[in-house]
Amino acid sequence: MKNTCKYLNLPITMFAKSLRIISLLVVCFVCFSNAQGQPKKRFKGKPIEVGLTAGASNYMGELTPFIAFNETKPMGGIICRFNYSDFITLRGNALFGQIAGDDKNYTDVAERYKRNLNFKSNIIEFSGTLEWNLMGFEETQRFNPGSPFLFIGLGVFKFNPMTQFNYDPAIHTTAAYGDIAKHDGQWIELQPLSTEGQETTKFNDRKRYSLTQVTIPLGVGYKKQFDDVWAWGVELGFRKTFTDYLDDISTTYVDPQITGGSNTGLSAALADRTVELGNPNLVNDYGSEERLGAARGNDANRDWYLFFNFTLTRKITGGKQTCFQF
């Protein structure tokens, strides 16, 4: 105490003395409010987090121009985050989801009901995204424990549209379709069937679409710390794709004699399913002039899929707690 008094009695101005006292009080206040009787701790460095995500998936395309809740399917996956700064987070995703669509869900739209097509597909996505934390995000409960964020990135995904074939001997006659009864009840992969004449002599400009495609994930979310280790989040992410064949529908009906290769009969049965409705007012002969060349889809628009999901992450490295040093 003697040394302190000697120091304070140095010839300094009243202003400087007041400033020194105020600074000392501020330091004491910060230490007290954060330490709460214990040594103050903080996160030093930016950690890496890993965790799980789960939620719902959907798609928008020829069979579902807008989000249809009755076609919602589950999704899930693994995520990894690196918090580069309070405002920028780098993230990797390994995700799995399902998408589906069915014209039967739109009985009030005559043309869609008449088309009578449907599909389902698994989605496997690997992507990297950049999250912009709008309010700043510090992965500790004591500072900025939560923030909304926007994200955008680049990824690759794999899909495989399928549909279930239901054999009807009154419709799928051997003379018209060949021996396809053996496929009754099976889920059939549509891409190998060239249902729109892909890579046939007449339509060699229609290339068989790849089942592996590039996607651009973009969306919005919110994340918040449970404590200094665990964090939760919720987000809505849209996936822009560069294909119109998530549902195997894009262009026009073609002559069934040129589709499908060795599976011509099965391809014809699944390319035009109007006859399955059993309503003579809706049914046209597949080979008639009014069916050939008619629009089956709209190739001017690309398909989208989307995820609405929750996340739970935990720090696995970095963010070590150390005492303040003054």
Describe this structure in words.
It is a single chain. The protein has 326 residues and is mainly beta. The chain has a domain at 1-38. It is 14% helix and 37% strand. The chain has helices spanning 2-8, 14-35, 110-115, 174-177, 264-271, and strands spanning 41-44, 48-60, 73-82, 88-102, 118-133, 146-158, 162-164, 187-189, 212-225, 230-241, 304-317, 320-323. The strands form three sheets. An eight-stranded antiparallel barrel has the order 2-3-4-5-6-9-10-11. It has a two-stranded antiparallel ribbon with strand order 1-12. The chain has a two-stranded antiparallel ribbon with strand order 7-8. The longest helix has 22 residues, at 14-35. It is elongated, with a radius of gyration of 31 Å.
Oligomer: single chain
In total, the number of strands is 12
State the major sheet: 8 strands, antiparallel, barrel
Strand line-up of the largest beta sheet: 2-3-4-5-6-9-10-11
Morphology: elongated
Q: What is the first-to-last residue Cα distance? A: 20 Å
List low-confidence stretches. Answer: 1-19, 25-43, 280-289, 320-326
Q: What portion of residues belong to β-strands?
A: 35-45%
Overall pLDDT metric: 81
Q: Give the SSE string.
A: HHEEEEHEEEHEEEHEE
